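User: I'm putting together a teaching handout on how sequence relates to shape, and I'd like one worked example. Could you take Alpha/beta fold hydrolase from Micromonospora endolithica, show the sequence you're using, and then write out its predicted structure as tokens right after it?

Assistant: Happy to. First the sequence, then the structure tokens directly below it.
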Amino acid sequence: MRSPSPAAWIRRALPTRRRAVATAAVAVLLVGAVVWAVRPQGPDVRTSSAMLTVRSGPTGDEPVDLDTTLYLPADASDGNKVPAVLLAHGFGGTKESVRSDAEEFAGRGYAVLTWTARGFGRSGGQIHLDDPDHEVRDAERLLDWLAARPEIRTDAAGDPAVGVVGGSYGGGLALLLAARDQRVDAIVPMITWNDLSRAFLPESTGKDATQGVFKSGWAGLFFGGGGSVGTGPAGISGATGAQPEGAPESAGPPSPGPGGGPGTGPGAAPARAADPSCGRFAADVCAAYLRIATTGRADQAAVDLLRRSSPAGVLDRIKAPTLLVQGEADTLFPLTEADANARGIAANGTPVRVAWFTGGHDGGEGPQTDSDRVKFLTVQWLDHYVKGEGDAPGDDFTWSRIAGFDALDRGLVATGYRTTDYPGTAGTGRRDVVVAGPPQPVANPPAGNPAAISSVPFAGELSSLLGGVAGDIPGQHARFESAPLPDAVDVVGAPTVRIRAASATGEAVLFVKLYDVDPNGAATLPNGLVAPVRLTGLPREIDAAQPVTVTLPGIVRRIEAGHRLRVVVATSDQAYATPVEPAVHTVALADGVVGLPTVDGEPIPTAAVVWRWVLAGLLAAIVVGLVVVVAVARRRNRRQDTSIHPAYAGTPLAVRELRKEYADGFVAVSNVDFDVHPGQVVGLLGPNGAGKTTTLRVLMGLTQPTAGEIYVFGHRLVPGSPVLSRIGALVEGPGFLPHLSGLDNLKAYWRATGRPWADAHFDEALEIAGLGDSVHRRTKNYSHGMRQRLAIAQAMLGLPELLVLDEPTDGLDPPQIAEMRRVLQRYATDGRAVLVSSHLLAEVEQTCTHAVVVNKGRIVASGPVEDIVGESPSVLFEVSDPAAARTLLDGLDGVRVLPDTDGQLVVDTNGTARSEVVAELVRAGIGVDRVVPRRRLEDAFLALVGENSRGSGDR
């Protein structure tokens, strides 16, 4: 069906002056869209690369070549000095890993120095894990080099105006450099650590790292690869996810150093270490890893080495304002690492701001809305503290959680929140949820195999993806479960639970997890996070066990109403090293309560949301204006009529002199006049373009007639008329939500009508439609016929007194068509009536009591089907040679052999006596076995509208 163009509709609805206003509003929107599309881009950036030789090491005189690139705004010069950003990459990456971030910073007016850390890529030296004497001192020498550049703004001689940004390995460097070198003006460490020993040897009851459970999955990935595995940078774009090492640079001699100054090295790619077990790691780092990986336990020397590369011991020396960005999807460096950094830095009076986002080592950048928020916070922080522009950012705490899918691009959307005071991982409120279950035995598998899978590096909550198949191993875990929650809980922070354990071995390594279980039983482990614990001094019997408080990793998650909490205590986990000796432990909950931290905050509007609201507001204003103008114009001609025409009070439908003409002059319906009475099934027939669907659209208020009236039980039909509630309709095909069952779709439709629930008559409608148990299946699994029958059931909800259906048998197979026929006949009882439009004339003949035949916008016949069929002049001849008979009869004047008659010889005699036709056949030697009057609706229809009759295209 064709509808008028928007321009034509506006022309008809608006007077000239109002039309000009509407056109101007549309023009403003179009101009705004064009301006937005062609808005100027950021300034050009120029780059220069070099191998810089710096001197560091314990004595400060060990040379190492660093592969560097300097990004400068196009207008930076000796006369226009700019502030700087030292941009560090993640573990296993190179300077190429942060190229896009560097370009964006430079486009914002910063000089950006990137470099490949020692031990990686083309840089020389060995990996010391951000050791203060090596990687940190390397960065100090880079600050010296920046201070000597003519384009760099300085705070004093040798002191560049500089901020340090980095993610993961680069974030740790930012913290350690700020503690060592007071020239740093601001830092933005992302997804990084506080205590490297605790990060790789966590213990969730508060024990020292020497008692920690070795995070073998992550450690093996880093050390086993010898530094070849990359983790993504965390720069201005918030790109904190894991990614491969940057693409190698082209071979050949390096380009001259920035400015061609001194300190430019030869640039030869460094040779790999001879010991394959160490790769490019320094010998002491490699030895510590090999000891831990072999025994699964850390000695004090190994812990001390890891703490040498940890900000935990030097936080009180950090004077640079610090923005800490930490990922919620991070099994490597969870939220507690940023929490410890924040508390240690703030204790010395240094400005600190904390932001949690939905990405991390396991979650990448998170949704675009979250990436944009991190970008804004980073730029705001540096602009104020390094560039000296803008108001102080403050110390608000911000966090985010996944809110759903974007309606435009179907990508994930994160909603950000903020609150004035940083609550830490304990939250500002607490919700206690009771979980229950008896003490349960759990087995530690020999050699830790098979092991449960909760996460793997970069993969996050793998057990959720696998649907629990490779999650917790039977016999190796205990479950404790809550009742369904009466209302939703927004968890922000680290939940706590108290457990008890007993073992004949006297000790146990356990993994505590908190699942979100939906009403269908699907369990989700948020971001694959687990709490490893090592318990010692355990009694043999559980009754003698003392309670131990376990602090689970921090999460941000909404536990919906009706969901349950499940606490799982397991003996194995693929990501950790566990005891190799088999054993059986007993575990129980101490008090049966899980403490959920909560934080009250206000949502943060994103730029996308703001612009969409602005655009939606403009469009809404235009639409409202048009609606008001059209309503005023129509009010002059039509008013709500609550009176009842006495002649039609008992008639379900009376159509009087209906006419529909479009703005371009096309007349879809010129003069249609018919009735539908109680108990009737009326078929509306006509060729394509005759005006059938237009008539139905007018009837349902989907378009307005040019002239004429429609009465439903005596009420004149106008848009919004209350009498429409007495009509059920299926016009222009069914539409259902695919993820809902048939019954749920019907319930959702009925709720949308706002009518009382008791008036729905679900059972009666479903019985008439005959869907059976299929009504409980999701509609995405329905066949076309089932969807049609569900649409019929939807139209029948409330048992409306008039049912209007457009092609209800479209796409159905013969058995389904026969069933639909019975459905319609059953419905037209108890005073109800049906109006059905269909092109299947045989079905109309068997289903309908009455028919209305429309051709070229006019009624050419109406009345009982028997009366219309009775006018047919067709005759069926059974002959000995049908082919010869067809040839003969085609040559007789006034006699027409009808086509498409399934091989039968059906003849329209057009007044010629049947005896004369028989005589002609006999004279030709063709035997005539039987002559039967052919009374079919199809014959009558063809006689009424003509075999080649067509409309001009129904609208």
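A couple of points you could highlight for students: The longest helix spans residues 607-635. The chain has 23 helices and 39 strands.
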